[in-house]
Amino acid sequence: MSGLLYFDCFSGIAGDMTSAALLALSGAEKEVRRALKGLPLAGYRFKVARGSSGGVAGTRVDVNVSGRQAHGRHLPDIVALLRASSLPAGTRARAISCFERLGEAEAKVHGVPVDKVHFHEVGAVDAIVDIVRATCTSRTQIVNPMPPIMEPGEFFMPYPLEVEVGGATVFVLPVERFERL
User: Fold this and answer.
1) Is residue 150 one of the residues assigned to a domain?
2) Does residue 151 sit within a domain?
3) What is the rounded CA–CA span in Å between residue 136 and residue 132?
4) Do the beta carbons of residue 46 and residue 36 sit within 8 Å?
5) How far apart are CA 150 and CA 27, in angstroms?
6) 149 vs 172, which has greater pLDDT?
7) Is 33 a domain residue?
8) Would the pTM of this model clear 0.85, i.e. be above it?
9) In this structure, is residue 181 part of a structural domain?
10) In this prediction, what percent of the chain has a pLDDT beyond 70?
11) Hey, how many other C-beta atoms are within 10 angstroms of the C-beta on 157?
12) Containing domain of residue 73, as a range?
């Protein structure tokens, strides 16, 4: 089964809301907790709870930070922290890629070199945990490839392939016009 998850974030979305929605859909809480143990950050607690608000049931994800924490980091500091982690290789690579894409966007907006970008909110412990959480829920899945276009009388025998799915993919598209249908 395949599908597309589309977020219509007309006024933005918070990391905890995204984490909660994706965890509720994936059911990967144990996998997330296992991956977060490889992150070299102290003084936080990852909490997942089911409940309701305003009569609507859902999942809530909180990253509770204890004590005084660094509020913001430069991109090279975050990349070094992730490289020094014992996160699974794919998670580490996807998290670094997310921060690098954010760094490129921030550098462009502020007119500074990417290595001088200072992440205020995104460099905080809870935001780093949110991004690692979003990138750690990949898994392998067996799929059957689509048959090729063939001439009459040709024979095609599909064989299953193992592919990696999940994790976080960030698409940045230049959109000049958007119309809601």
Assistant:
1) no
2) no
3) 6
4) yes
5) 40
6) 149
7) yes
8) no
9) no
10) 67
11) 5
12) 15-140
